[in-house]
Fold this sequence. Notes:
Elements: E1 10-17, H1 20-29, E2 34-40, E3 43-49, H2 53-59, E4 65-73, H3 76-84, H4 87-102, E5 108-110, H5 116-128, H6 139-151, E6 156-164, E7 167-174, E8 189-191, E9 195-204, E10 206-207, E11 214-215, E12 220-223, E13 225-227, E14 233-235, E15 239-255, E16 259-275, E17 278-283, E18 291-302, E19 305-323, H7 328-346, E20 351-361, E21 365-377, E22 379-380
Parallel strand pairs: 5-7
Antiparallel strand pairs: 1-3, 1-4, 2-3, 6-7, 8-12, 8-22, 9-11, 9-15, 10-12, 13-14, 15-21, 16-17, 16-19, 18-19, 20-21
Amino acid sequence: MKTRLHTADVLTFTLTGAEPQRALTLAALHDIRLFHIRALPSGVQAQIAGVDWPRLQALLGDDRWTVKLLRCRGPGGFLEQLALRPGLPLGAAWAFLVTLLLSRFVWTIDFEPLDADAQASLRQLLAGQDICEGTLLTKDALAQVQALALQQSDRFGWISLNFTGGRLFVESTEAEHQTIEAPPTQTALYAAAAGEVTAIEAESGFCAVTVGQQVQAGDLLVDVQRLDRKGNPVLQGASGRVLARVEKSYSAAQPYYPTQLTLTGRSAAAESWQLLGRELYRTEASADYTGTTEIDYLPLHIGRVTLPGVIQRTTTWETAATPCHYSESTAQALALRACRAHLYREFPDAIIEAERRSIDPGEDAAACTVTYIFCANIAEKP
Length: 382
């Protein structure tokens, strides 16, 4: 028996020989505590703490008494078995260290509360910060990635990344956008187009025109200063709207035989197999196409077992310039739509009252000029 392994055990033994009571007295004199002492026909039976067993053996080790160990109760037997098989504790320690290390890698990313569109957006955000299955994460890196992901996306108002046991939990909420008007600046408002003023909605500043007045492009509409009764200038930022009835023409042309980029239906994909943040295997695309590229991140599995890795698949969908043909009526309609789109880009709040069209069905393209009469805000800062 390896005594050191049985220090915490309770040992039961028998003591035989001449005058066993003298042996018990001798043990007491040497502060060796015996308990549960029971007389036997040839001696005594008692129990002793494992830590005192070596001292008892040394004290009663002469020829007068015989000390025989009957049984042990405690962890010593288990420790003795482990001592005979050192590979077991070493293997357990190694398995613990490996498990501890692997738990710091991302095995899976849980987007469960989010819809498919939000999951794809967040997956791209995380991939932009080099976060995917197989990435080694720390608390500092996780906090930094969470802040950067929130800064780089205006879709999400809140993003939470919680990493535990190799699993990254991702939660988010949609952003709620609010329009905050900037304070008026010390810049006057001028007319963006010629027209007749129909309404003045100045929030601050000093009006320089009146309703019904005709103005030209570039005329002053709302000033930022005026003189008081003593002739001193009074400053006030200019803001607001000046509505006017405007007549303005726009022109556009639409070719009959334009070319457009269209998908050919052919695609090629390249894959990168990554495990624990390192690339294990790569396949190149079967063809070098130019067009629309899409990157997908697929968790790595062996059967139903999830691994701390990912397959990064880059798919390129080929596009080519394809000639198309528009009929004369279609080309004219597209040219008219382009004229109206130009109007709304320049005056988003325009309300069209009337329009005059001039269409020239040329040989190569349909050209049109549309004169609109509309009401819109013409106030702008230079």
